[in-house]
Amino acid sequence: MDLERITDKVKRHMPTVLGHEQFMKSAVLLPLVQKEDELHLLFEVRSETMRRQPGEICFPGGRVDAQDKDVQAAAIRETTEELGISEGLISDVYPLDFMVTPFGMIVYPHVGLIRMDEQFDPNPSEVDEIFTVPLSFFLETDPDIHHVNIQVQPDESFPLELIPGGENYNWRTSQIHEYFYIYQEKVIWGLTAKVLSHFVDMLR
Fold first, then answer.
1. What's the predicted TM-score (pTM) here?
2. Residue range 171-196: average pLDDT?
C-alpha cells in the first residue's frame, strides 16, 4: 500500500472510541418535569424481577437497538416504553457527555423535558415505582464519593512468559469513584448519580 492510499484512508477516518464495536451501547434520559411551580427530576425504581440491578434507582433508558435512528432516538424510545407515555410529551432533548464504563459499555445520557399532560403508566416488568426530586436539592447538595478498587487478574491461559517480568509483571490497578445522593429514604448512586452530578455541574 502506497503513501497516497494510506493518507486518503486516514483523512476520511472519523475518530471514535477504540474498540467501540465490542461495547454495549445504552442511552438514558434525565427527565425534567414541572411540578408544584418547581422543576423536578424524575427517577425510576427498577423492578425486583429485573436480571440486572433489581430494586436500584435509575433514569429511563436502555440498550441502543439497530432500528433506532440514533442514540437520542433510543433514549426517547426507552423512556416512552418504560414510563408508558407518548413521545409527544417529550421535548427539548439534548445530549450530555457520554461515558465509557470499565465494564464494556458506552452510555449516552440526554436531558429532556416531559410534560405531565397525561397519566404515566409505567411498565411493571421494568419499573416498580417512579418518583421525583426537586432539582434544587441537587443544586444545593454535593454527592458523597466513595471508591471501589479494581485489580487485574490474568486468566490461566494468559501468556505471561511473553511479557517483561512474567508472573511478576506490575499490573496497573484502578479505582472507580462511586457517587451517592440520599434524598429522604431514596439512595441514588452509581452510574445514575455520576451522570446526575455531571448535569448539575453543568448548571452550576
1. 0.89
2. 94
